[in-house]
Amino acid sequence: MDIRIIPNFKMDTEMISLIQKEQERQRCQLRLIPSENYASREVLSAVGSVLMNKYSEGQAFRRYYQGNFIIDQIEALVKKRALKAFGLDSDKWGVNVQAVAGSIANLAVYLGLLKPGDKLLSLYLYEGGHLSHGWRLPSGKAVSFTAAFFQTSYYHVDLQTQLLDYEAVEKRALEERPAMIITGGTSYPREIDYGKMRRIADEVGALYLADIAHEAGLVAAGVNQSPFPYAHVVTMTTRKTLRGPVGALIFARREFIDRINQAVFPGLQGGPQNHSIAGIGVALHEAMRPEFKEYAVGVVANAQKLAKGLMSKGYEIVSGGTDKHLMVVDLRNKGIGGKEAALALEKANIIVNKQAVPGETSRFWAPSGIRLGTPALTSRGMREKEMEQVALFIDEALRNYQNVAVLRRIGREVRDFAFQFPAPGISG
Ligand code: DSN
């Protein structure tokens, strides 16, 4: 297969062979990790372009180095598209497009708006939060730098319903008196009541950060609720449901954006990744087309269908379903660990990740569940009918998780199945 986006890359046969193998893997496997997707050929072209040859520290039209006339126009265009994609008024909101990843975006928010030692309140990691929201091990050891520089505290889901209990969140906020309340993360499968979270933040005098890294594309398409009417700051990554490159966007109300810009550069980063910023711009352009709305509707319908298919086979889905693109399967009733399940599924060409579950009773590296999502499969044109088949593949593989011969046979069937659906950026 040709790597058309980098046509001069023909001499390093060792590297080109590895890239081709990864392309092939992405084409022949069912990729169910909810934070992954397929970027379009146009996004890949922007990211693989000469824009990465330029240094451009500073903000658009206010750079430290010369030669940024074109880069300035690119960054200004991406900012304009970012505000438009989320329906925001530029008099009220600013956006920073330079953070290289979601964790850095969140750190920039804390460094820009808080003082070291201030307290954060966020969702407990095992119930769907994120490392960059200030995770400490139960022993108290800080795992991320966020926890080293800021005090952290957590709110929880209700262990019966596995849903956020807003009264409990309010109680926790009143006890902890945080400087910032954070929502979002990596695996909470339900809509969040952003209005309630803002009211709780106001009650304790906290700022409210909504991290919508996972559901950014669903929010842009209007398929999931928007936090923008309520949050002071919204962060997101761009390579998940938004189908862009690695990168992040930080939206902040006008009074906060300058401090956040300063925290990104010179606070945390040097020259911005202009190629990724352009790729984000292309992805935002795609996300404003009517087909993207259809895509986002499909992502959620597929996730709901897949959850239903698995539940009909006796799998426990955390919170009983999903409002989004992802679900967490608690495997404790099946007598198989999340790690064994993920390794067995990989042998069958089905790629998921092991995942802690609410009320986790096992170790973090060998948790009790797996996490599945539909953004990548939906990008390949799979719909609800195909989700029935995907649920059958998963169930058969998990029932035979110790039988390598059966897993290999399922793997061949999965490969034939996957090949029927073009992979954007590779075969589409
Ligand atoms: N790695 C991302 C995810 O899979 O959700 C979060 O950083």
TrEMBL record:
Keyword field: Cytoplasm, One-carbon metabolism, Pyridoxal phosphate, Transferase
Entry binding sites for (6S)-5,6,7,8-tetrahydrofolate: L125, G129, H130, L131
Documented EC number(s): 2.1.2.1
One GO CC term on file: cytoplasm
Database matches in Pfam families: SHMT
Domain Serine hydroxymethyltransferase-like as annotated: residue spans: 10-394
Location within or outside the cell: Cytoplasm
Signal peptide: none
Top EC group: transferase
Keyword Transferase among UniProt keywords: yes
Cofactor: pyridoxal 5'-phosphate
N6-(pyridoxal phosphate)lysine PTM sites in chain numbering: K240
GO molecular function list: glycine hydroxymethyltransferase activity; pyridoxal phosphate binding
Main location: cytoplasm
Associated pathway: One-carbon metabolism; tetrahydrofolate interconversion
Record's catalysed reaction(s): (6R)-5,10-methylene-5,6,7,8-tetrahydrofolate + glycine + H2O = (6S)-5,6,7,8-tetrahydrofolate + L-serine
Gene Ontology biological-process annotations: glycine biosynthetic process from serine; tetrahydrofolate interconversion
Similarity remark: Belongs to the SHMT family.
Subunit note: Homodimer.
NCBIfam families from the UniProt entry: PRK00011.1
Function per UniProt: Catalyzes the reversible interconversion of serine and glycine with tetrahydrofolate (THF) serving as the one-carbon carrier. This reaction serves as the major source of one-carbon groups required for the biosynthesis of purines, thymidylate, methionine, and other important biomolecules.
Protein name per its UniProtKB record: Probable serine hydroxymethyltransferase
Organism: candidate division CPR3 bacterium 4484_211
